[in-house]
Amino acid sequence: MKNQIAMTACIAELQALRYTPAGLPALDLKLEHESQQQEAGVQRQVKLVIKAVAFGALAERLARQALGSNWNFQGFLASPRNGKGVVFHIQDIQQD
């Protein structure tokens, strides 16, 4: 099975860079996406806000980016530790 997500979104919120118990940099953020999508032959306006997390050098790089900047994100979805909702784990970014 595959769990791969790719989307263009803007950085809506950045938390302070933190470190895991193992010393790995980690960054919690929120992403906003808005687009037109085709569904059942009809154009649909899509808007979403999703919680995301990045680790390592990618977390450090994202922590330096401007709020509202647009990026192409790639990663996977997972449940957070509390098991409520979904978190997008970012594995790669490219400037939009």
Automatic annotation (TrEMBL):
Which keywords annotate this record? Answer: DNA replication, DNA-binding, Primosome
Q: Name one GO molecular function term.
A: single-stranded DNA binding
Please list the GO biological process terms of this entry: DNA replication, synthesis of primer
Q: Name one GO cellular component term.
A: primosome complex
**Keyword DNA-binding belongs to the record:** yes
Pfam families found in the cross-reference section = SSB_1
Q: Which family, according to UniProt?
A: Belongs to the PriB family.
The record, for HAMAP family, names: PriB
**Record function comment:** Involved in the restart of stalled replication forks, which reloads the replicative helicase on sites other than the origin of replication; the PriA-PriB pathway is the major replication restart pathway. During primosome assembly it facilitates complex formation between PriA and DnaT on DNA; stabilizes PriA on DNA. Stimulates the DNA unwinding activity of PriA helicase.
What is said about its interaction partners and assembly? Homodimer. Interacts with PriA and DnaT. Component of the replication restart primosome. Primosome assembly occurs via a 'hand-off' mechanism. PriA binds to replication forks, subsequently PriB then DnaT bind; DnaT then displaces ssDNA to generate the helicase loading substrate.
Q: NCBIfam families, per this entry?
A: PriB_gamma (TIGR04418)
**What is this protein's name?**
Replication restart protein PriB
